[in-house]
Design brief:
The complex is a heterodimer of chains A (about 350) and B (about 325).
Chain A: H1 2-14, E1 46-47, E2 50-51, E3 88-90, E4 98-102, E5 113-119, E6 128-131, E7 137-138, E8 147-148, E9 158-161, E10 168-177, E11 181-182, E12 192-193, E13 199-203, E14 220-221, E15 225-232, E16 237-244, E17 248-250, E18 253-255, E19 266-267, E20 272-277, E21 297-298, E22 310-316, E23 324-336, E24 349-356
Antiparallel strand pairs in A: 1-2, 3-4, 4-9, 5-6, 5-8, 5-10, 6-7, 10-11, 10-12, 13-15, 14-23, 15-23, 16-22, 16-24, 17-18, 19-21, 20-23
Chain B: H1 2-28, E1 40-44, E2 47-52, E3 58-66, E4 72-80, H2 97-101, E5 102-104, E6 108-111, E7 115-123, E8 132-143, E9 154-167, H3 172-177, E10 179-186, E11 189-191, E12 195-204, E13 210-220, E14 226-229, E15 233-235, E16 240-248, E17 255-265, E18 268-279, H4 281-298, H5 300-312
Parallel strand pairs in B: 2-9, 11-18
Antiparallel strand pairs in B: 1-3, 3-7, 4-6, 4-8, 5-7, 8-9, 10-12, 12-16, 13-14, 13-15, 13-17, 17-18
Classes of the chains: A mainly beta (about 350), B alpha+beta (about 325).
């Protein structure tokens, strides 16, 4: 009986101390109830071993303060997260359908989750979307759209895609931890605009002048070339194709095309008119990317009926951190005749076609 | 006498100056008759993605900038094309309703040097336009406006811009149901190297195109997951696109799980998972030695007898 009574006493003492959440406590002090009426001062809510989470205070003898005690000025939320500052929004690659977002943690812990909202309105009054899984945009925000700082790419951030070209966007973020603590939306970032998809292409010449082919030069000239220069912000990069309108022709006479092909270019052998390229990473088209062996293997130009021709240079994507600017590739030509080649002025048209890939 | 000599000297000097000025003018005169203008153009937009409404006009500007210091004529052709095959960028002209709906303010124009020209593209789908994707190309070809006697091979350039249009509303949850991962296939056992080669194929059975965003995750047994973002690609209705991926792997793990998540838009994704083994060179050598030791242990009696016979014989 005595034991049962002791047990009851102990239980009745311990039961009130069961807490659904840990109570604010130091080594020698635990705040059991920290609603209105808990402790603190009007200038500080913390000490070495104590921190106030709730408001404090009561009046006594007509005063709300004493030398060691003062009432707080309002109710603080329990364990509220810091409202995250505006994410950093930028367009480093001058892109037209995506922008880079870097979340700013605002001194929150590493396990805090963030949601990102994006809009074309500087006040988020309309056209509000949310960055979803896969860094795409959607119109609704769900729990699965919250992600930790590392999940949002950390200091490198992420690229949100599916944006419209030539449009200014704004972003903001909110923080959440567990189900019970979420901040309001943070401040709105500076507006950053997407660009337009652009392609600039130029050549350094518009005609090729071979030296006169004579026995003195073994009827050979391989000194001519065309430099192809490209600038683009196309995400998937670009490809340049080449073809000729006809073989080198003078009246009824022609110089045949070199027998090597774009799929299988070869070290020069024999005669004809052909080309090589110094693009040693020609990934478009069948054949190995290094098939031209840094400008030492040759192929003949495809005929006019081939559309748009054979690939001679490319730079594939993804292009998003920096656009392609003034990238150059050189196509070099070689013509070899024989002493049986009829004399004359031979000409044709070499057509380079450039396009953005997708 | 001296006075006349001085005047004579001055006149000679003036004549010399005049000749020099004339020579300078002659050298700096533009040689249109001798040289062809180089092509140096900038086009925007080079890719245009639009949503169309039947019987409603959609207009946008096509900006062409002549960056050369000489005038440049350009000609524009509009053609349909079929983008349904992997690598089908041959742009063989094809019939397309989109072409018949499209008008351009000028198909032939001359752009002054260092100037920009704006041409208006207007697309008005017919009232009975079906819900689907429509595709066309703009081919912009510079031409030389003056008559030339062609004596040498000429170099000409051409641009191809593309238009991807959709009539209808895209519902991404429906789209996700119509997209399938047809192949997600790493080499199952990789010997002697620490690089994984994976192939991915995604097929689109939806009524219009979308942009596929694949994320590849590789998780070694007892190791940390590593996620790689693959290049986004347009996938057109009824077609398949492929990715070939080569990834270096850490040397200490053998068993890997590979997961591919292909996002189609609005957070919707399709998933596939597979497994593969990597046996680096040092592990292979260790395995061979271990196998040899096991064989020797199991067969030691026979081996001992065989060697005894050999020595005796």
């Amino acid at each position: 009986m005595k034991k049962l009574f002791c047990l009851l006493i102990i239980t009745s003492i311990l039961l009130p101390y069961q807490a659904f959440a840990s109570s604010p406590a130091s080594a020698h002090f635990t705040l059991q109830d920290y609603g209105l009426g808990a402790g603190g001062t009007d200038t500080n809510t913390t000490s070495t071993s104590y921190k106030l989470f709730g408001t404090a205070g009561e009046t006594e003898f007509g005063k709300t303060t004493s030398a060691q005690y003062g009432a707080g000025t309002g109710l603080n939320f329990l364990l509220k997260l810091n409202v995250p500052p505006s994410p950093t929004l930028s367009n480093p690659g001058n892109t037209y359908d995506r922008l880079q977002i870097v979340v700013n943690q605002g001194s929150n812990a590493s396990d805090v989750l963030y949601a990102i909202s994006i809009s074309t309105s500087s006040t988020f009054a309309s056209n509000v979307n949310y960055v979803k899984a896969g860094n795409t945009m959607g119109t609704t925000l769900t729990t699965s759209d919250y992600n930790a700082y590392t999940g949002w790419g950390g200091s490198s951030g992420i690229f949100v895609s599916g944006l419209s070209p030539n449009t200014t966007y704004y972003v903001r973020a909110r923080a959440r931890i567990s189900k019970f603590s979420e901040t309001e939306w943070g401040p709105i970032s500076t507006g950053i605009a997407t660009a337009n998809p652009t392609l600039t292409f130029s050549t350094n010449n518009s005609s090729i002048t071979f030296t006169t082919l004579t026995p003195g030069n073994s009827y050979t000239d391989s000194s001519q070339s065309t430099v192809l220069q490209t600038t683009t912000n196309a995400y998937n990069g670009y490809v340049i194709y080449a073809k000729e309108t006809k073989p080198l022709t003078s009246g009824i006479n022609t110089i045949s095309d070199y027998t090597g092909t774009n799929t299988n270019p070869t070290s020069w052998s024999g005669n004809g008119f052909g080309y090589t390229t110094n693009d040693n990473n020609l990934t478009v088209g069948p054949g190995t990317p290094t098939r031209f062996n840094n400008g030492t293997n040759y192929a003949g130009f495809p005929s006019s009926s081939a559309s748009p021709g054979d690939p001679v240079a490319n730079h594939l994507g993804p292009i998003q951190s920096a656009q392609i600017t003034n990238e150059q590739f050189t196509v070099s030509y070689k013509v070899v005749g024989t002493n049986a080649t009829p004399p004359g002025t031979y000409n044709n048209v070499i057509l380079y076609t450039v396009m953005a890939t997708y | 006498m001296y006075k006349y000599k001085l005047i004579g000297k001055k006149i000679n000097l003036y004549i010399i100056y005049l000749i020099a000025i004339l020579l300078i003018i002659r050298a700096s005169s533009p040689a249109f008759a001798q040289t062809l203008p180089k092509q140096n153009l900038s086009i925007t937009p080079i890719i245009q993605e639009i949503t169309l409404i039947p019987n409603t006009a959609y207009s946008y500007p096509l900006l062409i900038t002549n960056l050369a210091d000489k005038p440049m004529g350009i000609h524009i052709d509009i053609n349909g094309f079929d983008p349904t095959q992997e690598g089908s960028q041959g742009f063989t002209p094809q019939a397309s309703p989109l072409v018949s709906w499209t008008t351009i303010s000028e198909k032939d124009t001359i752009i002054p040097p260092l100037s920009q020209k704006q041409l208006m593209i207007t697309i008005t789908p017919s009232i009975d336009a079906k819900e689907r994707g429509y595709y066309e190309t703009f081919t912009i070809t510079p031409f030389i406006s003056q008559q030339q006697t062609v004596k040498t091979p000429l170099v000409l350039t051409r641009f191809i811009g593309v238009v991807f249009a959709t009539v209808g509303t895209v519902h991404y949850d429906d789209l996700a149901k119509k997209v399938t991962i047809q192949k997600f296939d790493p080499t199952k056992i990789i010997f002697g190297q620490t690089k994984a080669n994976l192939s991915l194929q995604v097929r689109n059975a939806y009524f219009t195109h979308f942009i596929a965003k694949p994320f590849l995750s590789i998780t070694p047994l007892f190791g940390a997951k590593r996620t790689v973002t693959l290049e986004e690609k347009h996938i057109f209705p009824g077609s398949t696109r492929s990715w070939d991926i080569s990834l270096p792997l850490p040397t200490q793990y053998i068993f890997y799980k590979a997961t591919i998540a292909v996002f189609v838009g609005n957070g919707n994704q399709i998933l596939a998972q597979t497994y593969f083994f990597v046996l680096p060179q040092q592990v292979l050598i260790a395995l061979c030695i271990a196998c040899a030791l096991i064989v020797i242990t199991l067969m030691r009696k026979r081996l001992w007898k065989f060697s005894f016979v050999l020595l005796k014989g």
